[in-house]
Amino acid sequence: MLSTVECYNAWSNTYDSDGNILQLLDNDAFNEIVQPYLNDNYQNSTIPICCELGCGTGRNTIKILNAGWST
Fold this sequence. Notes:
Layout lengths: L3 H9 L8 H20 L18 H8 L5
């Protein structure tokens, strides 16, 4: 049985790549849930702010910034 560290080290090779099925699911969830919220709540007169907790590699932060929000 692998230790926790060994498991994370093995997963890190594909964590932020197309080889990680969870990334695909995460992208789908972001596009279906978060992106519509960002679009619906963006007001051109102000720059909306989002508190991004930084619990990953920043993949979603980039999407939030590209939607015109500040983090």
